[in-house]
Amino acid sequence: MTGRSRGRPRHDDVLTPAEWKTVELLRHGMPVRVVAQRRGISVDAVRFHIANAVDKLGLSGLRDLRRWQGVAGHSALKRRRTKGMTQASTQTLALGMIGQISRSVSDIEAAVAWYRDVLGLTHLFTAGTLAFFDCGGTRLYLDQGDVKTESVLYFRVEDIHGAHEALVARGAVSVAVPHMIHRHPNGMEEWMAFFADPDAGAVSDPHGRLIAIMAQAMPDN
Fold first, then answer.
1. 29-76 pLDDT, tens per residue?
2. Does the domain at residues 17-82 carry the CATH identifier 1.10.10.10?
3. Considering the entire predicted model, what is its pTM?
4. What is the homologous superfamily of the domain 100-217 according to CATH?
5. Between vectors from CA 216 to CA 186 and to CA 178, what angle results, nearest 5°?
């Protein structure tokens, strides 16, 4: 006999790693069924983790668990909070640039190929049915599921006619060629062109799945 106790190893955190994974997905707004699918476990296993977490934290149920703001002990954010780096007051709060925008897609593999090979965006990583791209510092998040009407994505380019020609050559479907939409009092022109994304046919709104390129042109002095 070694004197070692049976059962799972003890954790130096309020929740186990499995419970943290479940809680984070729940706090992201996912239903229990979707959490089970994402984690590759049964719905009963998810409910087991929920019951354990609720009991450990002294909460009343799933609703409270979704609103609980605890941070895992191994998290980098936990270390930042310990050092007082996130204690900004409401008076000093200043939102930065938009960090991420999301878009629904019907087929994540086909979408990755189109956004990477046709639009030429930098593919950061894919995690199951989620994919992430860099758009000049803003992250684009693609999520496979029910396709919805989306906000138009506008990408800045220097040469709008050259960019339009290049995208068409790569297979993008043009729905509006480059055109000027406004001229400012100082003579600067605003130009745009529009393309349909691969899921454009899945929504009834013809303007609901567009990708745009935009450019500004100043007159010669």
1. 889 999 999 899 999 999 999 999 999 999 999 999 998 988 888 777
2. yes
3. 0.70
4. 2,3-Dihydroxybiphenyl 1,2-Dioxygenase, domain 1 (3.10.180.10)
5. 125
- Model confidence over 73-95: pLDDT tens digits? 877 766 655 555 544 444 566 77
Q: Which residues 6+ apart lie within 8 Å of 21 measured at CB?
A: 39
Nearest CA to 164 out of 136, 140, 135, 195 is that of: 195
Tokens of 212: 């745009």
- Which residues, in sequence order, are CB contacts of 178 under 8 Å at separation 6+? 160, 161, 164, 191, 192, 193, 213, 215
Rounded to whole angstroms, the Cα distance separating 30 from 23 reads: 10
Domain residue ranges of the chain, discontinuous segments joined by +: 17-82, 100-217
The residue type at 40: G
